[in-house]
Design goal:
Organism: Halorutilus salinus
Helix content: 25-40%
Number of domains: 1
CATH architecture: 2-Layer Sandwich
Protein name: Pantoate kinase
Order of helices and strands: EEEEHEHHHEEEHHHHEEHEE
InterPro entries: GHMP_kinase_N_dom, PoK, Ribosomal_Su5_D2-typ_SF, Ribsml_uS5_D2-typ_fold_subgr
Distance between the termini: 11 Å
Keywords: ATP-binding, Coenzyme A biosynthesis, Kinase, Nucleotide-binding, Transferase
Structural class: alpha+beta
Pfam family, one: GHMP_kinases_N
Number of helices: 9
Bound molecules: adenosine-5'-triphosphate, pantoate
Number of strands: 12
């Protein structure tokens, strides 16, 4: 049995970029890689089965990554954050599975290949576009060009206080939004303008503010999220909506941070074997 960890990735904003090849498909945008993530155990098995926090599930991005690596395995996923709440659990699970399977089955792929397999699996499953590479790098990551490692273009944004507060109200099925052409037209326009803004002033405060402008412009907010962001902002903090989930996240001083239900930290390292 081999165990691997992949951090969560809070997408602040994004614009989809679709090309014929899934390796250079993905999204432009920015996000925060956080300690709350996913741990995966992989063991050899005649047939592939996946459990999520102990329950048997269908988990397409994980199944796809094993197919691409040409192995069958039992995969047990434990997650610190709920699926579908804007932390890229699908990408994290695919990435941790790819890293653990490479070791468990002595496949001999290099990092670039294991990360690319997870990126392609998440894209083809329709569950993510831009989480996997940031989850392999760590920190606060800009995605200036989409795609797998060595294909996309990635940058980083500095931070001083690593604490990130978050409150999860509910989940959004990523595939439903990505397949909605009208919604995606608004997302892409708002995402491009948010990225332009961040590249002019690359700070975590600006990232979170732009994230909230993005959510409003893209029409993705819910009443609970609007109220939650309003509360944090009126206590002097910065808050936005984690894409694609009904989750408020943000930064600020002790008083601001105590207004969230959970607290995690910027994870400066990428996914790894445990
Ligand atoms: N209990 C479950 N709840 C939700 N999804 C589940 C569950 N069990 C398995 N899945 C699978 O997990 C994947 C969830 O992907 P989804 O992209 O919605 O989550 P995510 O990566 O956390 O998203 P996001 O970061 O956009 O919020 C899908 O492949 C879905 O079929
Ligand atoms: C599409 C997405 C918001 C789903 O988590 C993410 O993968 C991203 O930022 O591209």
């Amino acid at each position: 049995m081999t165990r691997a960890f992949a951090p969560g990735h809070i997408t602040a904003f994004f614009a989809a970029v679709r090309r014929d090849d899934p390796l250079d498909t993905g999204s432009r945008g920015a996000g925060i890689v956080v300690d709350d993530g996913v741990t995966v155990d992989v063991h050899d098995a005649e047939e592939t089965t996946v459990t999520l926090d102990g329950e048997g599930v269908d988990f397409e991005p994980v199944e796809r990554v094993l197919e691409m690596l040409e192995v069958t395995a039992g995969v047990d996923i434990e997650t610190d954050v709920p699926v579908g709440s804007g932390f890229g659990v699908s990408g994290a699970a695919a990435l941790a599975t790819s890293i653990a399977a490479n070791e468990e089955f002595s496949l001999g792929h290099d990092d670039e290949q294991t990360i690319a397999a997870a990126h392609v699996a998440d894209v083809l499953a329709g569950t993510g576009l831009g989480d996997v590479v940031p989850q392999s790098i760590g920190g606060i990551v800009t995605r200036v060009e989409p795609g797998a490692p060595e294909i996309g273009l990635f940058g980083s944004v500095e931070h001083d206080d690593p604490r990130i507060g978050y409150t999860v109200f509910g989940s959004l099925e990523t595939a439903d939004v990505l397949e909605d052409d009208e919604a995606m037209e608004r997302v892409d326009k708002a995402g491009e303008s948010a990225l332009d803004g961040l590249l002019k002033d690359p700070s975590i405060q600006e990232l979170v503010d732009l994230s909230w402008e993005f959510a409003l412009e893209a029409g993705l907010t819910t009443e609970r999220v609007e109220d939650g962001v309003g509360d944090i902002r009126s206590s002097g903090g910065k808050a936005g909506m984690a894409m694609l989930g009904e989750t408020v996240y943000g930064t600020g001083d002790d008083g601001v941070i105590s207004g969230f239900e959970d607290v995690t930290r910027v994870c400066d390292d990428g996914a790894k074997l445990l």
